[in-house]
Amino acid sequence: MTQQWSPETVSADTTTSPTGAEITTTECRGCGAMVSGLNGRYACGVCGWVNDWSEGHTELPRAEDDPDYPGRH
Ligand SMILES: [Zn+2]
Fold it and tell me: Which distant-in-sequence residues (6+ apart) come within 8 Å of 50 by Cβ?
């Protein structure tokens, strides 16, 4: 099954949103479909492949950064 993208969604490989999150595109390692993601994080809608969280371009927030972190005093 091939995934067809409408032309307006593939106008650029890389765009930067107003929030600074970088929209990137890669080839799915599971089925080869083009997958768009944010800051290097990808999830394929065709086969369900996701890349590892550590491959993202940005640091993930720590539990301590969560305002609801139960260990906060
Ligand atoms: Zn896939």
Answer: 41, 42, 43, 44
**Sheet containing strand 41-42, strands side by side:** 15-16, 22-27, 34-38, 41-42
> How far, in Å, is the centroid of ligand 1 from the Cα of 63?
30
- For the chain (73 residues), the mean pLDDT of every run of 10, in chain order, is 63 60 92 93 94 81 86 72
CB-based neighbours (< 5 A) of ligand 1, an ion:
28, 30-31, 33, 44, 46-47, 49
Question: pTM here?
Answer: 0.52
